[in-house]
Amino acid sequence: MKQFLSFVRKEFYHIWRDKRTMFILLAMPVIQIIIFGFALTNEVKNARIAIFDQSHDAATAGLLTEISASKYFDIQANLHRQQDIDAIFKSGQAKMVIVLPANFQSDLQHLNQVNVQLIADASDPNTATTLINYASAVIRDYNQRLLQDQQIPYIINTQVRMLYNPQLKGAYSFVPGVMAMVLMLVCTMMTAITIVREKEMGTMEVMLVSPVQPLKIVTAKAVPYLLLSVVNIISILLLSVFVLDVPIKGNIVLLMGESILFTITCLSFGLFISAVTDSQQTAMFISLTGMFLPTVMLSGFMFPVENMPLPLQVISHAVPARWFYQVVRSVMIKGLDITGVWKETLILLGMTVFLLLLAIRKFKIRLA
């Protein structure tokens, strides 16, 4: 028994001295409980919406007061023309537009009914359905309050229109997300072990004495995975179109170019991990925790980013998959051109350059 307790004490000492193990054992459960308990939720709050009020009377003012008081909506813009509706959806500034017709109060008083149009961005069908339900509930409550004050029954009808995905197919939402996740996993994890494998196999010395520059060595390591990833991209797109019936409404060349750019971003991150780690196991662990979990939780694919606390929203800006997910949805589902995704493209390009320079710098230091 004494020997057994001695071994137990020894294991405690090992765990206590290993900071990474201590972090996984003690800090990770706390972080996961906080993230999953408070931050990650499918409930939609503070959703960006726009109002197209063509009446501007007391009745629409009362209804808009009810909508703006709701915690579910954040009114981003008041539109003045019918053409602005399409533009605000393409810019991504609103997920739903509430259209109030002209002569709203007059129709309500003389015809006893009026129609309110709810237009939602159904490229994310779950969020669109939730917002429509929230808005319909607010309008019903407003209608009930009007009925309490009037002897003549007033009826406010809602007409729903789903843009980009009228059939509310779930594939329209998960194809861009799965595409980002697959490319991130394959590219980052595979390249993360490439240089580390050379170290573990003892072939790093051959590379160290070669006259090849670090940039060429790093590039040569990434090229095979880039070509294989292009095959993956083509396979995913073919399956999406011909098996899942998800059309490519935008420019296929632009979509391929954006996908290749995202692939290079992932390859650069994998090379950076590979350059700073000493074992394949460590490289795999870092790539999983550094890319897979943030891609699932913070890209907006599974949980709306707008609902997260501000610190997590800020962190999500550093996740490449968040920007690629928006690009694929915009080009593939909404049919936007480069003018609609230029900001995301520049961010991905900047991340790629930064990570690639970082990987080359770390590799060069080791050569020295």
UniProtKB/TrEMBL annotation:
Question: What keywords sit in the KW lines?
Answer: Cell membrane, Membrane, Transmembrane, Transmembrane helix, Transport
**Record-annotated ABC transmembrane type-2 domain positions:** 136-366
The entry lists its GO molecular-function terms as: ABC-type transporter activity
Coiled-coil stretches are none
The membrane-spanning stretches of this chain are: 21-40, 171-196, 225-246, 252-276, 283-303, 341-360
Membrane-topology annotation of the record: Multi-pass membrane protein
InterPro entries tied to this protein: ABC-2_transporter_component, ABC2_TM, ABC2_TM_bact-type
What Gene Ontology cellular component terms go with this record? plasma membrane
Transport in keyword set: yes
Domain of life from the UniProt record: Bacteria
Where in or outside the cell it occurs: the entry states: Cell membrane
The record's section on PANTHER family has:
MEMBRANE COMPONENT OF ABC TRANSPORTER YHHJ-RELATED, MULTIDRUG ABC TRANSPORTER PERMEASE YBHS-RELATED
Q: Which family does it belong to?
A: Belongs to the ABC-2 integral membrane protein family.
The protein's name: ABC transporter permease
Which organism is this protein's natural source?
Panacibacter microcysteis
